[in-house]
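Mods, move this if it's the wrong board.
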Amino acid sequence: MPITSEVWKPFGRGYHAVYREHEVNHCPGCGRTHWIIGRMSAECAFCATALPLAEASRPTGPVIIQHKNRDSHAWAA
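Not the wrong board. Structure tokens:
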């Protein structure tokens, strides 16, 4: 774990472009603002430059999928 003085050093990690929801996002490739939004990334509709979503890069807990009818057998038709 980095110490507090090392946490915020953008010059150390370089330029990191991300798509931010509720903001005007200009494409770093062509400068336009039309995006196709997915679950993990956004793609420029004009030049196909892909950016990760800022919300998707946040650390989250593990995803747990539970089936409601896990004890009943599935019958194929």
